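The passage that follows is intended for readers who have already worked through the single-chain material. We present the inputs for a multi-component assembly, then the predicted structure in tokenized form, and finally a short commentary. You are encouraged to pause after the input and sketch how you expect the pieces to fit together before reading on.
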Amino acid sequence: MPRRPERGKRPTLADVAERAGVSAMTVSRVVSGNYPVAPPTRAKVLRAMKDLDYVVNAHARSLAATTTKTVAFVVDDVTGPFFALIARGVEHQASSEGRLCLLCTTHGDPERELAVVELMREQRAEAVILVGGAWDTATYAERTAAFARALEKSGSRLVLCGRPAPEEGLPVSTVEYDNEGAAYAMTSHLLANGHRRIAYVGRAVGLSTTDERVAGYRRAHADHAVGFDPSLVRAGEFTRESGTALTEALVEERPDVTAVFAATDMVAAGVLAALRRRGVRVPEDVSVAGFDDIPLASDLTPALTTVHVPHEQLGREAVRLALHRGPGAEDRVMLGTHIVIRDSVAPPRAAVVP
Amino acid sequence: MPRRPERGKRPTLADVAERAGVSAMTVSRVVSGNYPVAPPTRAKVLRAMKDLDYVVNAHARSLAATTTKTVAFVVDDVTGPFFALIARGVEHQASSEGRLCLLCTTHGDPERELAVVELMREQRAEAVILVGGAWDTATYAERTAAFARALEKSGSRLVLCGRPAPEEGLPVSTVEYDNEGAAYAMTSHLLANGHRRIAYVGRAVGLSTTDERVAGYRRAHADHAVGFDPSLVRAGEFTRESGTALTEALVEERPDVTAVFAATDMVAAGVLAALRRRGVRVPEDVSVAGFDDIPLASDLTPALTTVHVPHEQLGREAVRLALHRGPGAEDRVMLGTHIVIRDSVAPPRAAVVP
DNA sequence: AGCATCACAGATAGCGGTATCTATAGAAGA
DNA sequence: TCTTCTATAGATACCGCTATCTGTGATGCT
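Having made your guess, compare it with the prediction:
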């Protein structure tokens, strides 16, 4: 009695082989197409495959061939436009390189990140892309380094996207953009407009990205010979709500502030909402600048002056770096940013523009 | 000479077993924890695992155990807030059920969707979740049906999220929300405000979701004894740009329109931008309503009156339905929507509110 | 003491592919 | 004509894990 795939079971190479009257090996060759098979034989096999609706078993294949054609990427939250844009870049590049995407979220929880990277190791992903800022703690840096080494040992590759490598000589690829420079440029823009009391709002303490941004903010102040006032740096989250709350407090405590540099566009949206609620006009009374240039930025009222970050390219580069490695291949890319001037920044009312 | 994992190769069960001085089977039992192992033995094994930094091979496991612990979801574009929110729901539920997420995008291309579903079949995903509206063509319906049957045959499950099942008796689960009812409610709201010439903007021709929405729009007109004017339904894409372009044309051709019902909030953002550019005030001159209630909606100026769609729940239900199937388990869920009234709708200037 | 019962650990056989070697025709060359 | 290729297909041995069966001391019971 001919062996036929029972219901609920998928046909295997052997099933196809039997139906086509050839060996399993021949079918395998037709499927992967990396070995000459005589046209008539190939036709028979293709026919049998179609008849049985055969699909290869990716797990069996990666077990035998030790290559998974899979890249994993780990983000805080898919919902954030920042991550979504990078995700799009990753997905694009991955699929154009014939890879599948594994998606995991950490909700900003370092513990979950640990679990998730472990999961990716189980999956033998070719690359694991960690997106977003890193926590500036020694243990976190140590753990990232451990990830990198563990993945390397497994023949996989860690890619840090939008965060710096924790130490030199680690087997990681990094794709970054110039946070410090961007923050410097935007702060300079505000200073050049005559602002002297500029609040930086939405700083998540101890996150690499913001630390760099604050550094740029400070350097700009120094270069313009404006004293740095620590009380103008307001810690919070990267959310709209945080922007609102921080702004409420800021307006209350520091009515002398004439400009707000929000850590992200999302925070800026919250800032604008809070100011509007309080009857503060933007940019007449207070200027507001953002960071990211997410699609929403130009839809805010007033349209947001912000820093453009090439998110999608960030994602694409991450995959490219991970997949094309070899002698002479780069393993570190720094992408440029630039400020986008819209309508939310203007000189302060009583400004003495230099 | 003791067999040790060579560099570049990951340790296997056998390596751990050898180091712990037990059999591979015992190690397997410790790892999966579904069989009693004497505490001292377990300790030895755990020690060896830690020493070697052992990680199971998910592919080998799913090959042997014939269960992949993976759900796949297929969206048009991760960047769209609509999809991102659903994705979040999917990811949440999946990870809380111990499943991994495979992400694929189709860019609205039915051909790519075909390829992608094939890929998911190769991966033996436990469930494949198709997100977003379906094309209303016979061949598309036929193909969806084919997907459903093929996946069912492989012991997997197709879940349609936000689109109806193409035919009865198909092995699919569906999670929908009431497009027709929501559009009816919103149109009624506009009509009740006194609007009589309401444009529906951003209709992608032949997409199930919009067809349903247009149906609700028409039913509301009928119930309010207002004639349906086909020239007020403007076809386009679900993008901000499309909203802008369609509005430009609309204002030009139909200056008598007093309200615009945008197909999505994203389109509404474009509509608002176009109206603002033309100096048309919202809601004083023209009212605008959206659909989706994405986070951006409340940040628009004026804050957008829109239909709230429970995206995240949609995603969660999709996973739940796919994973918990059995006698008596539901395989179809319809989630409710409701309109969210903000500031973008008001009676028309010369309105005679009934 | 004598035997059934446990609780645990090992042996074995695949899961569904691919790498690699071997076998067998027919074509080509001497 | 006989050997040597070359093109094609088959056989075999894993990849790393789990299901399932078998073995064996220690325990409980009469």
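Commentary: Chain A has three domains: 13-63, 70-177+311-336, 179-310. Residues 1-7 of chain A have pLDDT under 50 and may be disordered. How closely did your sketch match?
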